[in-house]
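hi! just following up on the protien thing from before. the input was this:
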Amino acid sequence: MLDDAGLQALREAARLSPDNLPLRRHLAEQLLAKGYLADAEAEFRAALVLAPKDADITAGLAEAFVRQSAYGAALSALEPFLASPGYPPRLGIIAARALLGEGETGKAAYRYYEAISRDPSVADPELAERLTVATTGHSSPPPPPPPAAPPDSSEEEVERSKLTFADVAGMEAVKESLRVKLLLPIQQPELFAAYGKRAGGGVLLYGPPGSGKTHLARAAAGELGAAFVNVGLADILDMYVGSSERNLRATFDLARRNRPCVLFFDEVDALAARRSDMRQAHTRQLVNQFLAELDGVDQHANEGVLVLAATNAPWYIDVAFRRPGRFDQMVFVPPPDATARAAILRILCRDKPLAEMDFDAVARATEHLVGADLKGVVDRAVEVKLQQSISAGRPIPMSTADLLAAAKGAKPTAVREWLATARNYVLHANESGAWDELMPWIKGKR
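and the predicted 3d structure came back as:
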């Protein structure tokens, strides 16, 4: 219930004139300005029905999401605008806040400084200070705005992950594989040196979308206390011939300068696809460059550089990447079972006001949901509790019933589709034995 007479009058006017777009927008902005975040969100949504492509209304909705810590929802709302060149700089500032809330420090810094380079009036000194602290670990004057073009790979931010394996629910076999392959050679170098094993190497994480591959890579860096470089396709791929290869080389050089370093390539199948499937010579050259960087100019070039890559489609990756010394270990990151889902829910809810919870009951009701889906369930439950808490004027603890209600509308993102594709490869295209690790899981899901 609103306790502001002016807002109550505006709301009543909007109720009587539901198609009055300026009135709805004004009401939403006033609600946002006075901190009625859930109400503001509802009004911005209603306004977007009337004007689906209005950037200002979208900005207001995203701002309401950010202030409720629903960072993923904010980025989803902004995404159609951010994908187009020349988007309003204000949207870039809001996106930077959401990305920072998601822990994507490098991307947040890029969005912020790109926005103020086009319109200095949208600068947010407080946000700039938070970005500086997040990227450097101490307070300092913000760097000058970069050019509007995306930053070169050599300018990528090196992160320091605060996550560890304790923040990764389940996946004990996967974590143990990473410890032996990547972490222990750096943590116990004398022992591994006695057997001629160097610190470094590559592991390919594969599994259905949303199963936690990126989260696992960040936790590996945090477990080691190493630098973390998160490489996306936009950091490497370039329209000009030769530029993609230079970006890739600069990325490896950045990791070598900051060793020990976890260098993480997401959606690596786009950079390491089978050369036999490529029609253009310059795309094959990018694969060759990737292989050369993994090998290094000498046997010690990549010592201390732990290369992790993630893909949903490992069967499309060139077989040369699985040669010893490259991505010689493939690790399946499965969808979480009921025990792991309960553990994920505990981690997602640990910093929120809670009543007595039965996470096992929620886990049983969320079969086939992966970590990203479970985060969406928690976010929806939190949004409902926020609205109730604002109306009550006090925090209302979240209960098992809230999570179960949010789970009812949740749909598995892509597990079933991925499973069908994986089954085809396991049963009909596994002459080399590359997919033997999937066999027990596939058979168990028939």
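The two ends are 51 Å apart (CA to CA).
The domain at 159-332 is CATH 3.40.50.300 (Rossmann fold).
cheers
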